[in-house]
């Protein structure tokens, strides 16, 4: 299965889970997320723990050692963020994405492939051609941004 969460959504979801349960260890958070999003998605430690570290670094999450196990809970700032967050309203959309197996891929490799496959990428151009190419690439960038912004409304 591809990615279920968009940029920032996993952290929001972790904050929402901790707001609901109070405190929990990483495996418990993964289990809770899997149940909420649906069985079609399996959270990985490679995604959850870096998100938890980032949340701790940003001051939203506190961590305590309980019998050799890290237990996570929201800080005061994290509780305020949870109150402002719309993460709970997204669970239905996340579950639908997971069940449909909607594949989500990073845009970077697609852009890298475009640049690498261009037969003219090493060609030298004069100032006029460079300006024209800059304008074309700027329009392409605007179109890509517009397309991606439209997609943000679906979940």
Descriptive overview:
Helix 1 (9-21) crosses helix 3, helix 1 (9-21) packs across helix 4 (76-84) and helix 2 (26-37) crosses helix 3. The protein has a three-stranded antiparallel β-sheet. Helices cover 59% and strands 10% of the residues. The two termini are 17 Å apart. The protein has two domains: 9-100, Winged helix-like DNA-binding domain superfamily/Winged helix DNA-binding domain (Arc Repressor Mutant, subunit A); 108-154. With 155 residues, it is mainly alpha-helical. The mean pLDDT is 80.
Assign the CATH architecture of the largest domain. Answer: Orthogonal Bundle
H/E element sequence? HEHHEEHHHH
> How many strands, what sense, and barrel or not for the largest sheet?
3 strands, antiparallel
Class per helix and strand makeup:
mainly alpha
Main features:
10% strand; mainly alpha; 3-stranded antiparallel beta sheet; 2 domains
Summed up:
The chain is mainly alpha-helical and 155 residues long. It has 7 helices and 3 strands, in the order αβααββαααα. 59% of the residues lie in helices and 10% in strands.
Secondary structure blueprint with pairings:
Layout: H1 9-21, E1 23-25, H2 26-37, H3 45-57, E2 61-66, E3 69-74, H4 76-84, H5 91-100, H6 108-117, H7 127-151
Antiparallel strand pairs: 1-3, 2-3
Helix pairs in contact: 1-3, 1-4, 2-3
